[in-house]
Each structure stands twice: as C-alpha cells, then as structure tokens.
Design goal:
Keywords: Coiled coil
InterPro entries: DUF3444 (IPR024593)
Protein name: DUF3444 domain-containing protein
Strand content: 15-25%
Distance between the termini: 110 Å
Oligomer: single chain
Number of strands: 17
Organism: Arabis alpina
Pfam families: DUF3444
Shape: elongated
Amino acid sequence: MSEKNPTPARTEEKSLERVLGFGDMKIEGGLVGLGEKKVGMSEILDEIHKKALSIVERSHQREEMDKKLKEREVEVDVKEKALMVQIVEFEKKEERLKERVVEVHLKEKALMVQIVEFEKKEERLKDVEERERKIVLLEESIDLRLEEAEKENDLKLFMELSVMKSVLEKKEEEREKNYELLSKLIDLEKKKEMIESEQKAKDEEIVEKNMSLELKEKNLEKMMKELELKQREFQERPVQGETCKRSRVRMMAEKCSEADSPLPPASKRRSNHDDEEKGEDLASVVSPFASFSEDLNEVLAAEIQDHIDEEELCCVDPEFHDFKATMSSFVVGKVWALYDSIDGMPRLYGQIKHIHKSRSSVKVKWLCPKDEEESVPVACGRFKHGLTETMSCLTFSHEVHPIRNGRNSIVNPREGETWALFRDWSRSWNNNPEQHKPPYRYDLVEVISFDDHDGVGVTYLGKVDGFVSVFKHDAQHGVVSRMISPDEMLEFSHRVPSVRLNGDEKGVPAGSFELDPAAVPSSLLKLGEACEVEDEDGSRKDIPIILD
C-alpha cells in the first residue's frame, strides 16, 4: 500500500525545501543588513545553522514515522491475507455443502411430488450465491475505501477496517445459519419420505380391503338379482312394447339373395346360405315384442345366443334432439361408429366406401384394433383397415373423427365428448375373459381434458329426474372427477352422442346433456325393470321391458 502511494514522503521533501528556501531568504536579508548595518553577522549565521539542524531532526522523525506507517500497512496486508484464507476455506465448505445438496437432489429426483420443493431449494441457493456476490462487491468496495483511507487518515483506515470485519463476520454467521436451516430441511424431507412410504403401504392395505369388500358386494348383488328374478316370474304380466327407434335387424328376408347382403358385425365371413336360413329363423324372433308370453320366452332362450347381434333393440325417442342417422348424413371417406353384437353399443368403426341410396345400405371398410389379441371390447386406441362389408343404414350411430397416422387411425376421447366407462373394469380383464362377460355395467362421463402423458380427465354424469336421457355433472361412487392414465384407456367402452342443453328446455338444468338413448344402456335410462332370461349355459341376460 505504502509503495503505491508515496505521497506523504514527497510532501515532507517539499516542506524541507521550503524551509531551506526560507533560510536562504533570511541569509540574503541578513547579508543586506550586514552591508547596511555591519553588525551581528556571526549571531545570525549561528541561528540559521540551529534552525537547519532542527529541520534535519524533524526529517529524521518523519522517516521514522514513515517506517511505522509501512509496518502498519504490512500488518494490514497480513490481516487481509488471513481474511482471504478464511473466505477461501468458507467457500470450500460451501462447495462441499453444495455437493451434498446435489447428491440429495439426485437421490430424490424420481419423486415427482417433491420437485417443487427442490426448486425452492435451488432458489435459496441462488439467494446464497447472490449474497456471496454482494459480499465480493463489498470486499472490493472495502479495498477501494482502504486505499482512500490511506490517503486521508490512518485512524479512519483502522476504523473502517474494524467495521468491515464486523460486517463480514455477521454475514458469515448468517450464511452458516442458512446452511444449518438447509440441512435441517433436508432431514425433515427424509422424514417426510418415510412417513409417505408408510402411508402408501397403509393405503395399499385399504385398497386390498376395499377390493375384497367389492367382491363380496358383487356376490350379494348376484344373489339379489336371482331373488328378484324369482319374484318377477310370479308377478310378470304381458305389456305392450313401444315402437322401435333404431332396429339393428337388417332386412335379411328381402336381401338374402343379393350378393352384397349386409352381414352382422360380429360374423363378417358368414355365407349367403347361412344368412337365408337365419333370416327365416328370425321371422319368429323379430316381432315387435307384442307380449312376453311363455312361447316368446322359449324362443328367446333358444335363439338369444345365436342371434344376439340380430335381435331388435328397443329404445325411446329423445325429447329435444334427433340423433337418428339418415342417408344424407353419410359421406364417402368419413368414419362412423356402428352398433356391435355384444350389447348393441356403438363401439365398432368403419370407413364409408360406397353409398347405396336405393337399398338404404352403405359399404364400409372395417377399422380393426391394432392389437388383435385384445379380448376386451376396444373403442379407443390404434386401428388398422380390415375387410369391406355392406351394412344397413340402421346400424350406424354417429360420425367419428380419428387421427390418421400412416395406414393406421387413432381414436381417442376428445374434450367435450360424453363416453361410457366399464364400471367393473380392471387390468386383469384381458388375461381373464371370464371376468368381463356381458351384461356390462357402465358409468357415464364427460371428457374435460386430454394429455398424451397424463391421460384423460373425466367428470361423472348422473341422470336428471323427470327426463328420458338428460344427464348432468354428479358424483358417482363418491367421486366427482378423476384422471384415467394412458395404460387404462381400455376402461372406455364407447362414445355416447350428446347435445349440451342451455337450460331453456322445460326447466332442464343449464349445462346438462341430452344423450342418445340408443347408445345408453337401458339400466342407466331406468325406463322400466329388466327381465333376466336364462340362457342355455346358465348365464343371465337382460331383456328390457318397455313401458307405455
């Protein structure tokens, strides 16, 4: 420091030169006086010599003071170096702590729930780094102030050094406290992980217990259905069936001789000879349910398994919107959903290739599931082109808007659509076909979101009393809405065409939906009680009783 600023020594040299100059002036004045007065020359010279000696002594004293000042500067430099060593050690400790934080972050990276908390930690570390940057700036300002203090005053220099040291010590204490808090926070997070793992194990136990309870509940429901069946056998009376809105029975007796006679979706490769025989057999089955007499029940029991895809489905007309598809609705190249042969729900897809307006039939190319090994009814996912077949216009439900991916088509639930879910669906269905035999049970939902990674968000729908097929948002099974993950997409059974109502229709709640009754299971419409018919293999199938 003193080598950089030798200003005090130069100032003393200038002072000495001034004193000597002043002495010379006095000497010259004395000589003039001697010339004029001729007295006291020796005394004046002695006095000048004494003053010169005193000035030399003062210069020596000034040099000693300079040496002391240099020694003090050296002490200050030593203290600064010691302080820098402490700062370096502290930075090393800080780096070690950062390494520990990074290790903890890597270990806990798999836990998605704690990502937000780790981001907060990173923000805190950024604050620490910002404080370090400020400390560095403070140190630089201290150096500048020290240089200025050396120029101005030694006392001020030491005072500022002491103040700055105290400030740095306080900053260091604050940083140590922050790191202690961070370590405590890490310990708390580890404890939280342990608690969450324990809670997860308890939740799994509760889920297992709930599953066992659900199995018991299903067994109880089966027993109740058997009891109700026995009661209905004694109380059953013939009732008049109402007219059918949509019949999946194709005019087989009239078209059996034609080469392109429509085949049922469940049996795509049946011969024309088989169609003629079954068309004749159906003449006694497809009567419009005049009554449920004993003769009709016997015929249904014998024919329901062979002709379930040709049997007549009866449904009521909607109150506000006509969902019926007409010949003018069909366009070549469009994809439509068709009713299947399992339970008459629109979960089959076909692309229109040709329209026969004169015969009210349409030639379609089937869209088959990409994974043909799936034993579960598939209504969404990847589909590939299959065989071409001519179908009656009565078998079509609604238009579908798939996503084209090369030769494949992708059908996914879209936001705002209404779909039916398999209520009892589980991942084990595909491996255990015995677990998902019809009749199926369904829940109706509205699709509120779709994401390739998170899945599909749905809100449950409940029926509005007093209307045929009006549904609104309502909790089902204690749940209002939920997310269906991408690996649970087979839980979707089929799309249900619907129209959102504005609330002006006969007091209908605003925002509710009128669903297509032909795509809604009769058990959800609650039009009448269901009459179970026992099949040859002992299974029971619901035959709806339509009320006048």
